[in-house]
Design brief:
This protein is α/β, with parallel strands linked by helices and 435 residues long. The protein folds into 2 domains: 277 residues, Alpha/Beta hydrolase fold, catalytic domain (Rossmann fold); 88 residues, Sandwich (Immunoglobulin-like), CATH 2.60.40. The chain has 9 helices and 17 strands.
Length: 435
């Protein structure tokens, strides 16, 4: 990973309201409909409540499920709110769309200081990857999501992938941690959905705790004045880099708890590095609540995740194709070398050579693929074709040979990438949605 940490002073002073009715905002409890719940799983193995999580797996039977880890908001002040993590809204939308949902607890500011909370969420990501078979997790796609301070932690997971340390001035922090038994697994996310997140802790106007310091100061361990570097290493815009995963950010224009400029700053940083990102400003949206969690916004979040999954699957297929092509090139070079040796010791026959070249050129031309109903048809070239079919979540892979027409009706419902290779090695790829 090519990441660098650049400490840049910000001149903007953002307005930030008092805590009032709760920094976490209205999240609500409820349940996740049509999902089987596994509760209170300890993801570290230390028996601590703040290191437990709940798992919601859609009841629709599949071989595996892509995963979204959704973290509650609490101003980093609560260590047992997984049962109030937008279950009936955000989490329900993810599960309805076919995602397994994981809602973790994490240590509060009174339990430990930053970066302990980041270590917790990254341990959850590794736990998911380490328990793929047990819980039917599809680890080809593991996304993070979070509301408010949970969005802040999720934004850090997304932007610090590949970084072991965060540095600003004389301050260095461990960004990974060593919690749990799955430390050999990646703690990177494949996408992030952020809801009303604080992102740049240093530029925020801190929230007073009634004369006993600020919420941010309690989280970081020191108050802001004179401790700029300690606050900056907890701010996700500074970690943005070209290899960050896709990120979508939702923020209400009427949010009086976390100022909307917080999301704009992260969005601008990601765009500067050409990261795939979207920024949804929600008219009259406050800090949480029904306007923010509208069906339109929930659909946008799910569509963004689906698109990120498809893009990753397509890239994986392209990379596989590139490797196959490289291997074929190596074989071809070896064949050419052998032919050269043979030609040096035999009489050249230009007639045969010209005939062979013409034959190869005929088969090397491009060909078209067409989907009609549940069938794939080849146009432009005759012969026997090799196919490879991979579902976007990686749960299904099929391969074999066909001539002119391939029956796709036997595939399970889902979205697939189909790679077809002609007899001469020319490759074409088409997308297919089985309904």
């Amino acid at each position: 990973m090519k990441k660098t940490m650049i400490a840049v002073g910000m001149t903007a002073v953002l307005s930030f309201a008092q805590w009032g009715g709760g920094f976490g905002g209205p999240q609500g409890g409820g349940s996740v409909p049509d999902a089987d719940k596994t509760a209170d799983v300890n993801y570290v193995g230390d028996g601590k409540t703040y290191h437990t999580l709940d798992i919601y797996v859609p009841k629709q039977a599949k071989e595996s499920y892509p995963v979204v880890i959704h973290t509650y908001g609490s101003a980093w002040s609560m260590n047992n709110m997984k049962g109030s993590a937008d279950l009936s809204t955000i989490c329900a939308a993810y599960a309805k769309a076919g995602y397994a949902v994981v809602t973790p607890n994490h240590r509060s500011a009174s339990d430990a200081k930053y970066p302990a909370q980041l270590h917790d969420i990254k341990a959850v990501v590794r736990f998911v990857r380490g328990n793929a078979a047990k819980y039917k997790f599809d680890t080809n796609f593991v996304a993070v999501s979070g509301f408010s301070s949970g969005g802040h932690l999720s934004s850090l997971v997304a932007t610090t992938c590949g970084l072991k340390e965060g540095k600003s001035g004389s301050v260095t922090v461990d960004l990974v941690g060593d919690l749990g038994e799955f430390t050999s697994f990646s703690s990177c996310a494949d996408a992030a959905v952020l809801w009303s997140p604080p992102t740049d802790i240093y530029t925020m106007n801190p929230i007073s705790m009634g004369g006993s310091g600020t919420m941010e100061g309690a989280f970081i361990g020191v108050e802001r004045e004179g401790n700029k570097d300690k606050w900056m290493v907890a701010s996700s815009p500074y970690y943005a880099s070209d290899d960050d995963p896709p990120v979508i950010i939702f923020h209400g224009t009427a949010d009086k708890v976390v100022n909307i400029e917080q999301s704009k700053e992260l969005y601008d940083s990601l765009k500067h590095h050409n990261v795939v990102t979207e920024y949804v400003q929600v008219p009259n949206g406050e800090h949480g609540g029904n306007v923010m969690n509208s069906s339109e916004n929930l659909s946008k979040a799910v569509a963004f995740l689906d698109k990120a999954r498809e893009a990753k699957a397509a890239k994986a297929l392209t990379d596989t194709t590139a490797k196959d092509t490289t291997a074929k090139d190596t074989v071809a070079k070896d064949t050419v070398a052998k032919d050269t040796v043979k030609k040096d010791t035999t009489v050249k026959d230009s007639t045969v050579k010209d005939s062979t070249d013409s034959y190869v050129q005929k088969f090397a031309k491009s060909f078209d693929l067409e989907i009609y109903g549940n069938h794939l048809s080849v146009h432009g070239v005759a012969g026997t074709f090799r196919y490879t079919i991979i579902s976007v979540n990686g749960s299904h892979k099929f391969s074999g040979y066909f001539r002119k027409d391939l029956d796709l009706s036997v595939l399970p419902v889902g979205i697939y990438a189909i790679k077809v290779e002609s007899p001469s090695g020319v490759i074409n790829i088409i997308r297919f949605a089985k309904k």
